[in-house]
Specification:
The structure is a homotetramer of 318-residue chains. The first copy, chain A, is of the alpha/beta class. The first copy, chain A, has 13 helices and eleven strands. The first copy, chain A, has a single domain, classed as 3-Layer(aba) Sandwich (Deoxyhypusine Synthase). Helices cover 43% and strands 17% of the residues of chain A. In chain A, helix 1 (18-28) packs across helix 2, helix 2 (31-48) crosses helix 13 and helix 6 (131-142) packs across helix 9.
Chain lengths: 318, 318, 318, 318
């Protein structure tokens, strides 16, 4: 006879902290609330486990969506050991580092008018198209430095981070993911960097026959090496895409596969794509440890991430 | 030239209250986070507006999902003036009032085994099937009292609430939505009551040719009357379904239609059904005021509701 | 050792019939294609099974979405024995029977302008608001006939169908679901009829203190009776909502529960609501037979239904 | 005064061809059916437009999902001029080319058991893990041929296609996307090739310090050149991800941006990610021509693609 714990109806009081809500959700334990509390608690466990290397994959419009400083905090607080990210997020990060802001817009807009106004839309977040001119100037200034050199993508991204003026590293608006990865020497991977504004900038120089050699595969040795040599691994996936899949692939080489897993996405599993695939599917592949602790949180990451980080800041001692 | 406010990157600190997070999300202002903050703030405005009658529609497995006390708080705090609900939520409420609990289960289960064990599954929430026996006893005891009488659904539900033993009305586990609606005389509507465990209990008596007359239409006069006579209306929809649509219909008769609107659902708008329809669609019908404040929050309600109520308890003076 | 059949890569040729595509999808057998073929084949089996009563639940904007004649064909071809439907679909059906059409619009529209033009929007389908005036005239003319009488909802709907001018019953535009149910005496149930334009019309008369008595519960005896007495039951759910749940409830009383099941919805299961719940969940409740054949097809019903009916017309001998 | 065309209720007859259904859906014109017909018709127009270069982006588990031969037909029929694809689809293609099949499984399975049996799961499609051994042998045999050479990803993929034994190029089971791209010299791009089984095979050799130099950026010149020099461009996106975004990026350089667009995905737009973003968003960026013909079809691609190709084969003269 198995004892099934009760769904404890959540009670809300005045002045509740985020942490209190997460705990109340743990006590109710089902549906979205149950999953959110599990996501927070499993994140805490994997980050607190000294034997565990945490791999975070970040896709989706997280910088235009207001999550930049949250990511930077997670990186700088050493919550994350290996960071895999889309080129788009790095481009938006770089654009903010160059002094631009994203704007709060609406999806109910005439995109033709935005186009005339030089505004690029990312759902309800706006970006001034002239940011590309600053990007071009930035790369025009710095890229010649690596003409003729051979780099891999990780080396390129650290180099790129080194070119960003040092931020205050307080809660200023010009903090930068790229800069933080460089300063803290956090391994950062971006397997489809071509597919981004940064990729476009590099293309501009290649198109003029400048010699830029960035190898697609050589930094696999590093991420695979970390996966291979770590005692335990944990994964945090925000938004699926290449970052998730690339880490999953590395987990196949990790001795125990992933022992912890948190996935936050709005994609569904049924169409069969990797982004929406439930984490337990990874057990069949040897990507997830069959005794691991996993949760698939189906939630807009811009809602879930601030809550989870607030919980982590309260619960993890530095 | 329109000035577009910046997406302010969210900063997370220690000991953050839920209210602080909502405000941080207001400052970022886009995607899910932007919508969650709007949902909280618009809820506050409509509840605080003394000229506004608040209509709440509740669908989905909210009682099995741990949201019962949150709903009761919203009702008892007078945040809600008119309550439309599915019969299923009332059935689950009644079952808890009779001393049963829902259980924290998993969707990754063999439903055949659950069936053998007498466990009914609602996604990952479980309910003991024997609760139906207690329901039967309860109705066996009380229903004869209304044999031969003519009631409408609202009258029936208040009567039903009166039969539930008074709860402590502190944060006890035996609080009851039905009881609260009766005690506080909150107008409660349930247009498809037949479609529920409670409906099934009534059917049991009808099948034995007992005279139970519950009119389907006569309580429309009351909800329509409130909509017709209020100065302003606000709507809160959790999960779509009949409760949403029934309130929307009443809004067509309200002089200013709905001036405030908050919708929380995971359904998508594109297939065309009412549950997933964006609130702005209601403007075309005269259900929503074209100058109203609305937000469609795409989020599991078990995540969003606790956060919104925590914000409301901090922000609304009683 | 279990033999797993191959995913046969689908081959497309010229002049393929819908039936050919369904069979090709059966041979590939996975993801959406596999589910679509299963939905068609299971539908065929339940309809062809002479011992099986087929219960169809219809929700969502199916008449505005162009599915009216498909539903009528299914009803008139005796594919369906018991029909449970939302009041909205019946209202849209009645509006078309009175000579109006829905219009092909867009969701990217200013709803304020539509409102001024007297156009009601259902996602990208439009309806002239003046249709309500014709509805009012229609009910003004006919409703006095039932003043003072006692009806249940099914009786009322058959009576309503009898008032609709006989359609040509060829592929004319003025075919009517309501008329067909009346003419063919198909049991039709609509537990939340209040929640619809038809409900609003009845309310108009109640508001003037006209005596209209429509009992909410008494037709439960009929649907429950059919469920109770049938040798086998099959269910087809389009769009969830009350129609699905009401049939599910009846299945609990059916001796073998449902032996066949097809569900077509875009709703997800994880938030816990009935509409998106996987059919297998019903096994735990005794709503689905544990040896039954079921499929959850995740697809816009306006895509899936025409394909399935085309398959059925080719495969079922009348 | 704008005339709004009617939603013509779809009529289903016996022996309907796929083409007939698509036309019936064009006449109903709304919701999913309306979008499916538009997707088919816009695809036909862009493919038939001799001034138009068609860029197809393919993500999601399309080979495990039974879509391989459909993709190959589209490539070999010259429906597609530029092909961008995920490494996962190419890996599954190569695995089938080496004689393996995917299997029809279920998502309701114990992944631990699958793992023990050496079965990798992709939702409800299975793959024998031993396929990796054959992959290893294949690369062991062939890869030394390119040791020390410098290739870009497109060159590598054509080279890889050249190593696959020629298929019969009838409707045999061993047709191959990679082989077809090589034989027909179709430009094929895969910006995140590292993130795939093929990437893993290359890593195996790099890990042993073999010199494999595959440049990440140099083939951008080719895709950008085609985008830059074409008179018109059309885009077909199946499943979002990097393939969509990479083509979108190229469209920014195309003189007229994309004049035609078809997107098939189950992802939602609201969370802000590129995969679910509506095509019209691209107008703001200059990726889509503001007078272009676009449709976002929200449908499982394994359902939509066979229907669209059947329509194209009937409607496009070769």
């Amino acid at each position: 006879m198995i004892t099934i714990p009760n769904v404890n109806q959540i009670n809300i009081k005045k002045d509740m902290r985020v942490k209190d809500i997460i705990l109340a959700m743990e006590n109710s334990g089902v549906m979205g609330a149950g999953r959110l509390s599990k996501a927070a608690i499993i994140s805490k466990e994997m980050i607190s486990d000294k034997n565990c290397k945490v791999f975070m994959g970040l896709a989706g419009a997280m910088v235009p969506g207001g999550m930049k400083n949250i990511i930077i905090d997670m990186l700088e607080n050493k919550y994350v050991d290996v960071f895999v990210v889309t080129g788009a997020n790095l481009t938006h990060d770089l654009i903010e580092a160059l002094g631009f802001h994203h704007g709060r817009g609406t999806h109910l807009v005439d995109d033709k008018k935005l186009h005339k106004q030089g505004v690029d839309r990312i759902y309800d977040s706006y970006m001034p198209n002239k940011a590309y001119e600053s990007l071009e100037d930035f790369f025009e200034k710095h890229l010649p430095e690596i003409y003729g050199k051979e780099l891999n993508i990780k080396e390129f991204l650290w180099w790129l981070g080194s070119k960003i003026p040092a931020a205050t590293f307080k809660h200023g608006s010009n903090r930068s993911i790229l800069r933080s990865c460089y300063e803290k020497q956090i391994p950062i991977f971006c397997p489809a960097l071509q597919d981004s504004g940064i990729g476009l900038m590099i293309y501009n120089h290649i198109a003029k026959n400048k010699k830029i050699k960035i190898d697609a595969f050589s930094d696999m040795k590093e991420i695979m090496g970390i996966a291979w040599s770590c005692k335990k691994a944990g994964v945090i996936y925000i938004g699926g895409g290449v970052p998730k899949n690339y880490i999953q692939q590395a987990m196949q080489l990790s001795p125990k596969s992933a022992s912890y897993g948190v996935q936050i996405t709005m994609d569904r599993p049924e169409p069969g794509g990797s982004s929406g695939a439930e984490l337990r599917e990874g057990i069949s592949w040897g990507k997830m440890n069959e005794k691991g602790k996993f949760v698939d949180l189906i939630c807009d990451a811009t809602i879930a991430l601030p809550l989870i980080l607030a919980y982590l800041k309260d619960e993890i001692k530095q």
